Amino acid sequence: MTPFAECYDELDLEAEEFRIAAAFTRRLTEIAALSSLHVDSFNSPNALDALSQPAVLLDLDGFVAGANSAASSLFNNDLRIMDRRVFVRDLEARTKLRLLIEQFKQPAPISPPPIEPIIVPRQDKLPVLLRAWPIDGAARWPSPDVRAVLTMNALGPRPGPPAAILAKAFGLTPAEAKLACIIARGAGPEIAAMELKISRETARNQLKSIFAKTDTHRQSELVALLLQVQ
Q1: pLDDT of 129-146, one tens digit each?
Q2: Which end of the chain has fewer beta carbons closer than 10 Å to its terminal beta carbon, N or C?
């Protein structure tokens, strides 16, 4: 079985969708906070490291004006910076990115339409979702030439929030907190039971207790809530 197939076996797609939505909500808040600061507050593009999500700054011509360390750790042959541009190996995704960058030169509409994410396939992993967040006017940083923040969401299972914090936030027992940590990354109770070396029945009972303590009723709701704890 390939690593790509293993990711699909573990991934709860509905929970993953909620995870991404929750992540983007947090990132938008972070971007808004950064954009509200005066340009002089940023002495280098490394200020982008204040974003916990992989991201790069793009100028009017689509050249990379800065990239944070989270983005650097994500780059590989499928997605990387080459000749000061974001290079995408997949032809379809590359074309969509080029068309998106060309929009930077057009006058900004009063009510810009939502920009759909660009799906970047990867050879042995789940895709990366690229989204462009325009930065307008005096908020552009670290220079007036910056036009957008390009964020990157690498799909796939990942560690959940710290169990100790979940226990304190929701009044969970240590065992429930460990289970919630695994559930938060999109894994089901069966996978959690195997990882924790407990029976499926025990995992299901603990999950019912977690639902009650968090006032949630479905795993997707629970994941969206737990992912707010970072």
Answers
A1: 999 887 765 555 556 778
A2: N
The residues spanned by each domain of the chain are: 3-154, 163-226
Per-residue pLDDT tens over the stretch 77-94: 999 999 999 999 999 999
Q: Largest Cα–Cα distance of the chain, in whole Å?
A: 60
Write the CB contacts of 97 (distance below 8 Å, at least 6 apart in sequence).
86, 88, 118, 130
Looking at residue 109, its pLDDT comes to: 58
Residue 226 token pair: 């737990």
- The CATH architecture that domain 163-226 belongs to is Orthogonal Bundle (1.10)
- Domain 3-154 shares a fold with domain 163-226: no
Domain 3-154, CATH:
3.30.450
Q: In Å, what is the CA distance from 13 to each residue of 10, 150, 155?
A: 9, 24, 10
